[in-house]
């Protein structure tokens, strides 16, 4: 068997290789065994595995997986561009300001993809690659610096013992960091109207919402798509400020609707000024 290394793309044999993972690092346990830390290639999940349960994925399958994600992103961008074109007559008679987005993502590649996505849609977004555990340290100063309307806090997460101990914060890999980051964001003065999305795959939804988020993942403790947090941020940013947006306005565009993401809703952040 080829020795596994950081950056390899693998599947878990015991799970039928249902999810493609990138090897984030390989650590030694207290008993001297190797443990491989994994993060999803196209879904926001973190997991671990023994090396013997992992199999390298062939290049063709990886390329197909990435192609499907890129096609999904491209299709959404085309849909948005078509809508903008249809409204061009009205847009020429007004100045439009969409909500400003500050997006902190624990995954470097996801950060880059998110930045490109927002840019293609013409949204005002600042994207920072900050590890989940460091987001609580940086979020307040970044809010004060950029003064966003919407904050997205995401990356990777996952339950350690899946299907049990739902209310045990320490049964989640990164939920405690998302919760603390939301709490820190809410402490920033003069930011009572800030809209916050936080969480990733299988996150502790109730804990994140109690901390002060408007939207969070994952009520059913399931996987969420790479794009789900971006879609929520986009919808809030492009909804008129006098309109209240609920999860029902978004759910059909999400991977698994309200099973993956839910929340209390938020006021839209788009401003329109007649010329």
Summed up, the domain count is 2
Globally, the shape reads globular
CATH fold-level label of the largest domain: Rossmann fold
Structural class by SSE content:
alpha/beta
CATH class of the largest domain: Alpha Beta
SSE pattern? EEEEEHHEEHEHEHEHEHEEEE
- Please report the distance between the alpha carbons of the first and last residues: 67 Å
Give the overall average pLDDT.
Answer: 92
| Biggest beta-sheet profile | 6 strands, mixed
- How many individual helices? 7
Number of strands: 15
Strand residues, percent = 15-25%
Radius of gyration equals 19 Å
Quaternary assembly: single chain
User: What CATH architecture label of the largest domain applies?
Assistant: 3-Layer(aba) Sandwich
Q: What's the CATH superfamily of the largest domain, by name?
A: Response regulator
Strand order of the largest sheet: 8-7-9-10-11-13
In percent, how helical is the residue content? 25-40%
- Report low-confidence residues grouped into runs of 5 or more: none
